[in-house]
Specification:
heterodimer; A: mainly alpha; 20 helices; B: alpha+beta; four-stranded antiparallel beta sheet; 16 helices; fibroblast growth factor binding (chain A); Acidic fibroblast growth factor intracellular-binding protein (chain A); FIBP (chain A)
């Protein structure tokens, strides 16, 4: 039956989590009804397609009305319009801010600007995430970015507090914000195999060790900007590759430590100079913004790919880097 | 100067951006009461302003305190142009005038604008100091308590029931004043809201005065309605039952219905055997000795035939009256559903009258708006009485003398009263009044249940309080007394088949019983009840004025008759024999009339088993037709059998033959109905074939009849796990768990087909209602097992081709396994006092049932486990929000400085399962208008109404929370008038809601259930 008007309002706002997910995924009402029908709710409850359509429309309307509140989740807790039990509020928020890995991988490191937003239809076509959902996710990134941009204090904690997200999700958002701010290039073909979670791990490491916040925790942008002084100091590492003696000394220290501990020892020994040169060069260039952006691509090209062609295992890599770092500390220059 | 009102504006939050340039707002507040206005300072550039104002003090008469609302306006300061209004809050301060209710109003109120809806919130503190002795000021009636609840409020005991109070006030509708042409829609809406607020304040005060005059201190079952008569004005009218209530000390038993009753012995005996009991001559002797000359039941002089010239100023104003009375041309098939009777039932009733003279008959209208009563109060029930009258509206010339409207109602009430008398009854209970207006035609309706009451409650000093506990030691509880006929069997007002009561075998009972009240808790039932609806559309020609009124009043009796037939057939089809909570609504539109009758059917074990329905073809029967009839008959029999199973109807077996046969042989039967009274014996058999006993015969003589039968069978039973009723409690379910979900749903259907027939319309209307129910079942599936209680349908014809149905109801969960166990053990149950003993058992089962709920409601992967959603939490607000609430609110405190919001439960019932009401905080009666000129942008009419209803809920909850309450009981939406003009992108809607604000505690608990979450005021200190 074609209704001129059809509403259902509960004192406690009724929200079906399945429909919420369909809404978040950007399904139209009709598509959502189809999906639900295939899911078999109808048989379960002896209902007709009309009922399902009416229910879906109602829920979609409710979500649309809630969306405004979800943009500043703290409001959801003390608004009066919808009576939603707290645990349900938490689910609503968490789901609203959850994103697709495929989508985030496309946007990671890009400027969260109108320009990028215009490209969303391409991204949608590429990732098979609906445009509507892409827009929501993109707007979420942008909103979080804007809010934390001007805040003092630790990035993850700020996100968690302002958007009432779980710790895990807050960390992911911190990574997105960090990448967007430093505009790390992640889209190159060679970087495609790296997942978002890999990048998020790197972001966490960088935030903890390379940002201003790592030394001083009460400045603005402390967790989003790399520490300029630190980057400047990295230049001094050049001595590791320019000073022939030092290079040899370093090599022999590393090789002594590695000998017998890995199958790839021969390759390590043979490539030491190249690898060390690659790493140090990357580090020394980081004062240039352009080179910061290429940080990951450089790492892959200059370091990871040579190692991979020598068939290093992950354990080999860890071992090599550990000793590479430790040995450097032993060198007189760095004492 | 008997009162000082004090208000303090604390803070605002979530204000809208009023200054586009700065994205901020410079807000200040005007506080107005009567003609006095105060202003706060401007709080510059903030969306979360802190005013922390001084106390604004208003010194006013208590008369004004009762009439006027406190008006708070939030504005945006503008240096160069006029200040922009952000929105308003109206606070009814009536609850503060009653010493027993709230002492302070404090909390966050939504700031409401009639164009933009809710725009942020404001934190306000309001107090009242009353100086003088209230009773000296006769114009005010401070201290009289009002309750929407239609039973004696829990935590009170009734010392005396004084009776009917009514009042109406009229005014011009601001929407139709000349000034409306030059003012903005906002100003016009606000004028209307304010006027109605004033009028309902005045009305309440006047009713209060009447109550004080009668010596009472409270109004129970207070029902206030608006008639928006358009050009001719605005009527606010109210009815209620004046009582003297005593507060029970909080430690004592909460259930007044079992706690308070009169001097017990005589009353209860009277129920069972009135004839034997000398102490109660009032009823006993009367029934026995009645042997006067039979009054022909069709001699029915009603007011319709001779309209008294009550409005001489407008002689053309035609009025005619329609009521069940008119149905007598097609005699009732033996139940007391109509007041079809002569004015005087019999001379010997005088004895009765003399006895109860002081108690009842002196009163102008022995009416009671209550629907459930203290034990022993209700002695016999006669049947439904109703009266309708069609009026032509004309302008109300003098608002101070609303005589015309008063006269109209007076006339209807007289008719009701005479119908009740005809049924041998001296009182009408479950009484209500309503109107339906279309252009200048207005249908006034009143209905109730004729009954005989125990006069002890109406005399002073008759209550024996000390004697209360012996009640249940009585050998035979009055589980059937109310079914016994109050009228004389030899002089029946309508043809009915009487049998001896299947319970006590001493008194006569009718074969079916229709009532407008709730089922008495002591009644003996078998199985469960269910919602039964009769739906009907009738086309009519468009007409004007008097012609229109005549057409309508000619149609009314036919509609009532058909609705009645439908109800009866559907009742039989469900194998039931009594209807409770019957409401018949007839709405008028330009080109059609809609009729909707809703009731809850039950099987009363005191009444005879219902006969089946038999289909008969036209004589002579041709063969092809006969086959058809047989299939239909089979379907009907199958349905009856299925329903018996579904509703678990297993009447107790009768081992002996029942004496007596249906008393009057069915005389002249109607064309449609014929009764086989083969009769009266074989009641001991349980599985009687339906044709054997007095079955209804449906004669198929034309295609219409076939359609009718088909429509009978289209009503789908609720899916398993669901039950539905329109009464307070569901007969047969006693072990409610605490999850409640109140909801309002509105649907409007546009009739596209121009050439509609009555049949087509009926189908559409039936489908509309059925689909609504199906939708509810689907939406609430996570609450299974659950019952939709107090399903209240209201229909309207807002425009030419529109049918609007609005429903408010509550879904409540119950423990399934326990019910089955209990019904199996003893089909006759009495109230819900035993739940505690069995608490251990249901708790275990509960985990099972809720885990299945989780499966159905949340199927999506990726729910973060860390949110700690317990399996129970999946079903709506079943669990208390405390454990999760704490951690959440801590966080939000840090960023926003507000506490979390008090959870306010709402229910149309007078109680919340699993909780005990410890305090009534006052009546909530709110009227809102919402208008939009950007309908498309708000998501069409659905989006517009959806957000408006949500906003109304929010405002009700906020007011209750500010009074310190945590629930609204007896909530109802009295009015939902939607006008739309999609072409102009406009819509307007008016909503009126009411209810009782209460504090309730968990049954096991002493503290209010959500006290820990209600930290609405802490923000002032916490904000930075």
């Amino acid at each position: 039956m074609a209704m001129e008007l059809d509403v259902f309002v509960g004192n406690t706002t009724i929200m079906d989590e399945e429909v919420y997910q369909l809404w978040l995924d950007g399904y139209t009402v009709n598509d959502a009804v189809k999906v639900r029908m295939e899911g078999g709710v109808l048989e379960e409850c002896e209902a007709s397609a009309d009922v399902l359509l009416s229910d879906t429309m109602d829920q979609y309307r409710t979500f649309q009305m809630c969306e405004r509140l979800l943009h500043s989740p703290a409001k959801l807790a003390n608004q009066l319009l919808f009576q939603i039990p707290p645990h349900r509020q938490a689910v609503l928020i968490e789901r609203y801010y959850t994103f697709d890995d495929a989508f985030v991988r496309e946007v990671l490191g890009k400027k969260l600007s109108k320009g990028t937003k215009k490209d969303l239809d391409d991204i949608s076509a590429k990732t098979a995430v609906t445009l509507k959902s892409c827009r929501r996710q993109f707007d979420n990134f942008k909103r979080v970015f804007k809010v934390v941009e001007e805040l003092k204090g630790p990035l993850v904690e700020n996100i968690r507090q302002h958007f009432l997200l779980s710790d895990k999700l807050a960390r992911d958002y911190a990574a997105i914000v960090f990448f967007a701010n430093n505009r790390f290039e992640t889209g190159k073909r060679k970087l495609q195999y790296i997942t978002f979670q890999d990048f998020a791990f790197c972001a966490g490491q960088l935030i903890n060790n390379w940002t201003v916040g790592a030394v001083d925790n009460m400045v603005e942008d402390m967790d989003v900007d790399l520490d300029k002084e630190f980057l400047q100091e990295l230049k001094e590492l050049k001595v590791l590759i320019t000073d022939k003696d030092l290079l040899d000394q370093h090599k022999s220290l590393v090789c002594t430590a590695l000998r017998g501990k890995t199958k790839a020892f021969n390759e390590m020994e043979a490539n030491f100079k190249n690898l060390s040169r690659g790493l140090v060069n990357i580090a020394a260039k980081l004062t240039n913004t352009k080179d910061v952006r290429d940080f990951f691509i450089d790492l892959v090209e200059k370091f990871i790919e040579p190692c991979r062609s020598d068939r290093w295992t992950a354990a080999d890599m860890r071992l090599y880097l550990t000793h590479y770092t430790n040995s450097a500390h032993i060198l007189d220059t760095f004492k | 100067m008997p009162g000082k009102l004090k208000a303090k504006i604390v803070a605002g939050r979530h204000l809208p951006v009023m200054d586009r340039a700065s994205d901020l707002t410079d807000a200040f507040v005007e506080v107005k009461f009567g003609n006095t206005t105060f202003k706060t300072d401007v709080c510059p550039k903030s969306l979360n302003p802190q005013w922390n104002s001084e106390w604004f003090k208003f010194e006013v008469d208590d008369e004004d305190l009762q009439d006027e609302p406190l008006q708070i306006t939030v504005l945006d300061h503008d240096t160069y142009s006029a200040n922009d209004a952000i929105g308003k809050v109206y606070i009814d301060i009536d609850p503060l005038l009653c010493s027993e209710a709230a002492s302070v109003i404090s909390g966050w109120f939504p700031i409401y604008d009639t164009i933009h809806g809710i725009r942020g919130e404001i934190n306000v503190l309001v107090k009242v100091e009353l100086f003088n002795d209230l009773n000296r000021f006769r114009q005010s009636s401070c201290g009289v308590k009002f309750f929407c609840t239609t039973s004696i409020p829990r935590c009170y005991r009734v010392a005396m029931v004084h009776g009917f109070v009514e009042e109406l006030v009229v005014n011009e509708d601001p929407e139709y004043q000349w000034i409306d042409r030059i003012r903005t829609p906002r100003a016009s809406n606000e004028a209307r809201q304010r006027l109605i607020s004033l009028m309902s304040g005045e009305l309440q005060r006047k009713i209060g005065l009447k109550v004080l005059e009668m010596g009472g201190n409270a109004v129970v079952g207070y029902l206030q309605c608006f008639d928006l008569e358009g050009e001719s004005g605005l009527v606010v009218r109210a009815i209620g039952t004046a009582c003297t209530l005593d507060k029970l000390s909080s430690g004592s038993a909460p259930n007044t219905t079992t706690h308070v009753h009169p001097n017990t012995a005589p009353a209860s005996n009277a129920c069972n055997s009135p004839s034997k009991d000398g102490k109660e001559p009032v009823f006993g002797e009367d029934v026995l000795s009645f042997s006067g000359p039979p009054t022909p039941f069709r001699a029915l002089p009603t007011s319709s035939s001779s309209p008294p010239p009550f409005s001489p100023s407008k002689p053309c104003s035609r009025q005619s009256s329609s009521s069940d009375t008119d149905l007598s041309l097609t005699p009732k098939t033996g139940m007391g559903s109509g007041g079809s009777a002569g004015k005087e039932a019999g001379p010997l009733k005088t004895l009765l009258r003399q006895q109860t003279q002081t108690a009842l008959e002196q009163r102008e209208f022995p009416f009671f708006t209550l629907t459930s009563f203290p034990l022993g109060f209700l002695v016999h029930v006669g049947g439904v009485v109703s009266a309708r009258s069609v009026k032509l509206l004309d302008r109300i010339h003098n608002p101070d003398e609303p005589e015309t409207r008063d006269a109209w109602w007076e006339e209807i009430r007289q008719e009701i009263k005479s119908h009740a008398k005809a049924l041998g009854c001296h009182a009408v209970v479950g009484y209500s009044e309503s109107t339906s207006i279309c252009e200048e035609v207005c249908i006034l309706s009143a209905s109730g249940t004729a009954s005989i009451l125990n006069p002890r409650y109406m005399r002073e000093g008759c209550l024996d309080i000390g004697n209360t506990d012996h009640r249940f030691e009585e050998p035979s509880p009055p589980s059937c007394g109310f079914c016994h006929i109050p009228y004389d069997e030899l002089n029946m007002p309508f043809p009915a088949q009487l049998t001896y009561c299947h319970h006590c075998r001493r008194q006569k009972v009718p074969d079916v019983l229709f009532t407008t009240i709730d089922m008495p808790s002591e009644a003996a039932v078998s199985g469960k009840g269910c919602l039964i609806q009769a739906r009907l559309c009738r086309l009519k020609k468009k007409a004007q004025g008097e012609v229109n009124a005549t057409v309508i009043s000619n149609l009314l009796p036919f509609m009532e008759y058909e609705l009645h037939t439908q109800l009866m057939n559907k009742l039989k089809l469900r194998n039931m024999n009594a209807l409770f909570g019957l409401q018949i609504q007839i709405s008028v539109g330009e080109n059609m009339l809609l009729g909707l009758a809703s009731a809850t059917g039950v099987y009363l074990t005191a009444l005879p088993a219902p006969g089946g329905i038999q289909i008969a073809g036209k004589t002579p029967i041709d063969l092809s037709n006969e086959h058809h009839i047989l299939t239909i008959q089979k379907r009907i029999n199958d349905t009856i059998a299925k329903n018996r199973e579904l509703y678990q109807i297993n009447p107790p077996e009768l081992t002996e033959e029942v004496v007596g046969s249906p008393i009057p042989e069915p005389r002249q039967r109607s064309r449609l109905f014929r009764s086989h009274s083969e009769s009266s014996d074989e009641l001991s058999e349980l599985d009687l074939s339906h044709g054997k006993k007095d079955a209804f015969v449906l004669e198929i003589d034309d295609t219409d009849a076939v359609e009718d039968i088909h429509s009978l069978l289209t009503d789908a039973p609720p899916p398993s796990g669901f039950y539905s009723c329109n009464t307070e409690i569901m007969p047969g379910i006693y072990n409610w768990t605490s999850a409640v979900q109140m909801f309002t749903s509105v649907r409007v259907f546009r009739l596209s087909n121009v050439n509609l027939t009555n049949q087509g319309l009926n189908k559409i209307f039936t489908d509309l209602c059925e689909n609504l129910l199906k939708s509810f079942y689907f939406k609430l599936r996570s609450m299974i097992p659950c019952c939709l209680c107090h399903l209240n349908f209201t229909v309207a014809v807002p425009e030419d081709e529109l049918i609007q149905v609005a429903v408010t109801a509550v879904a409540m969960t119950f423990d399934k396994d326990q019910t089955q166990e209990r019904t199996a053990d003893k089909p006759v149950t009495k109230g819900c006092s035993e739940t505690e003993e069995q608490l251990q058992f249901p708790l275990e089962l509960f985990a099972d049932s809720s885990s299945t709920n989780t499966q159905t409601s949340s199927k999506i992967s990726g729910v973060p486990e860390s949110t700690g959603v317990s399996p129970r939490a999946s079903s709506l607000d079943r669990c208390s929000p405390l454990p999760e609430g704490r951690s959440r609110s801590l966080r939000s405190n840090r960023s926003f400085g507000g506490g979390s919001v008090t959870v306010v439960k709402m229910t149309p019932l007078s109680f919340l399962p699993g909780t005990r009401i410890i305090k009534y905080l006052g009546i909530i009666n709110m009227f809102f208008i919402r208008e939009t000129t950007s309908l498309r942008e708000e998501g069409g009419v659905s989006g517009f109404l959806h957000s408006f209803i949500a906003e109304v809920f929010a405002m009700v909850r906020a007011h209750v929370a500010a009074l310190g309450g945590n629930a609204v009981v007896s909530y109802s939406m009295k009015e939902c008038m939607l006008m739309e003009n999609p072409h102009k992108n406009q819509a307007q809607c008016l909503i009126n809601v009411s209810g009782d604000a209460v504090i309730c505690v968990l049954e096991t608990d002493q503290e209010p259930m959500s006290s820990t979450t209600s930290i609405g005021q802490t923000c002032t200190s916490g904000a930075t």
